[in-house]
Design goal:
DNA-binding; DNA binding; mainly alpha; hpI Integrase, Chain A; 3-stranded antiparallel β-sheet; Tyrosine_recombinase_XerCD; 7% strand
Length: 448
């Protein structure tokens, strides 16, 4: 029962385990009780005292672990804050609160010596519920809560959420009004006022705020956001007025055939990769990732028609076959020959366009896409005219030629509401698509 009777009365006691004796500064807890007479009364008085000692031992073990692994300090501070909030301010058990406060102060001093004033101040503010530093919460979130996302998406979330953390520093500073002011600043200046790049509403809503909201929702999920706090992430991006000007400025702008020809003819002679990727895009409407993912095995015959078999696309609708334009036949022959090398047959798993390197997100199109971007920028094209604008040019040509919307969607891999059987049959598609492909024309383009 952790009580013992001595000459001068009853005492509560508890041995301190050897692993925390240095931390606590003694080998045994001992306290004289006011109870006299029966052991039962002494035990009753001793019970909350011993409970407090056991809690102190547990906290000491936590602080030892924290000192050995500083990255867990935020967890310890939050756990101490929770215990402090639950401990009574007065009554028979008020000494538990005193024990907690002593332990917090002890840890704060230890962190000051080992990690510096800022770290100890952050721990103190967090444990006492005065402020909640965002950076340690961000670090934990970034390590454990984005594993189900693609590396590219996870990196984007981390990058944008870090901007949010750098701005507000503490959770208590994140209010709805503060968020509105910050959003307004981002729309005027961007992230860095020294390098002004205003953010659009679309960028904020569809990209930047995704990572910020994800982090804030995580913080809320672990109980650090008060129940009565108005969600500062909702309704902070002003809505755009739906004018004709706004609608016309949305998204990428198509290139016209003459502009595509100009860019194609300006590609340096020694950049065969960019010339090849651009040529295939011009006469198929394929996405750049689809082109760069093509392998030898993806050149197929469908009812006597040579086709690209697209099996790697960003959408289910993108899984399709596209006939090879007659002007691309010689180019495809060259690519197959280069892939064959000294072998009797081109290896089926060899990429059709050799030499493209994966970036850190396993994207083979990244480098060639950037080269296209630099080229068109040097030629004076506006920012909204990009490689994807070639695909839009193809769609525009087909639309003006009078082809049905569903047929165009089938060819370029757009979602088709009338498609109910999954992937179209290559045998059915190819004969229908070939005349559409042949209708694509660009002035003064020589693919030889």
């Amino acid at each position: 029962m952790n009580v013992e009777k001595r000459v001068d009365g009853w005492y509560a006691y508890l041995s301190v385990p050897s692993d925390v004796r240095e931390q606590i500064g003694k080998s045994k807890f001992l306290k004289k009780l006011s109870a006299t007479g029966a052991k039962g009364k002494a035990s009753q008085e001793a019970s909350p005292i011993v409970t407090g000692w056991r809690r102190e031992i547990a906290l000491a073990r936590s602080s030892v672990k924290q000192a050995e692994h500083p990255e867990s300090s935020i967890d310890l501070a939050l756990r101490l804050r929770n215990l402090l909030e639950l401990s009574p301010d007065e009554g028979d058990n008020h000494h538990e609160r005193e024990v907690l406060q002593d332990e917090i102060d002890r840890i704060v001093e230890k962190i000051r010596v080992t990690q510096g004033i800022k770290a100890s101040s952050d721990f103190h503010h967090t444990a006492y519920g005065l402020k909640t530093p965002l950076q340690p919460l961000y670090d934990k979130w970034a390590k454990s809560k984005l594993n189900n996302y693609s590396p590219k998406t996870a990196d984007s979330y981390k990058r944008d959420a870090q901007v949010f953390v750098n701005k507000f520093v503490h959770l208590e500073a994140v209010t709805r009004n503060a968020m509105k002011e910050w959003i307004s600043f981002l729309m005027d200046y961007g992230v860095d006022p020294k390098n002004v790049k205003p953010m659009t509403r679309t960028t904020l809503e569809d990209r930047f705020m995704c990572g910020v909201r994800h982090l804030y929702n995580y913080i809320d999920s672990i109980g650090l956001v008060g129940e009565n706090v108005v969600n500062p992430m909702v309704g902070v991006i002003p809505k755009a007025e739906k004018t004709k000007v706004n609608l016309s400025n949305k998204g990428w702008i198509p290139l016209d055939p003459k502009e595509v020809s100009r860019i194609f003819k300006a590609i340096p002679e020694d950049d065969k990769q960019l010339a090849t990727v651009t040529a295939i895009a011009m006469f198929t409407g394929m996405r750049i990732n689809e082109i760069c993912s093509l392998k030898v095995a993806h050149i197929i015959d469908a009812e006597g028609i040579r086709c690209f078999d697209i099996v790697d696309s960003k959408t289910n609708a993108g899984i399709r076959v596209v006939p090879v334009h007659p002007l691309l036949d010689a180019l495809v022959d060259r690519l197959l020959k280069e892939a064959q090398g000294d072998a009797e047959q081109p290896p089926k798993d060899a990429y059709l366009i050799e030499g493209l390197q994966n970036n850190k997100y396993s994207n083979r199109s990244d480098a060639v896409s950037k080269r296209f971007g630099r080229l068109k920028k040097e030629m004076g094209f506006e920012a909204k005219k990009v490689f994807h604008s070639i695909r839009k040019c193809v769609v525009t040509q087909l639309d003006r030629a009078g082809y049905r919307e569903t047929s165009i969607a089938n060819l370029v891999g757009h979602d088709n509401p009338n498609m109910t059987t999954g992937r179209y049959s290559a045998g059915i598609d190819a004969p229908v698509m070939l005349p559409m492909i042949k209708s694509l024309k660009y002035p003064d383009v020589d693919l030889k």
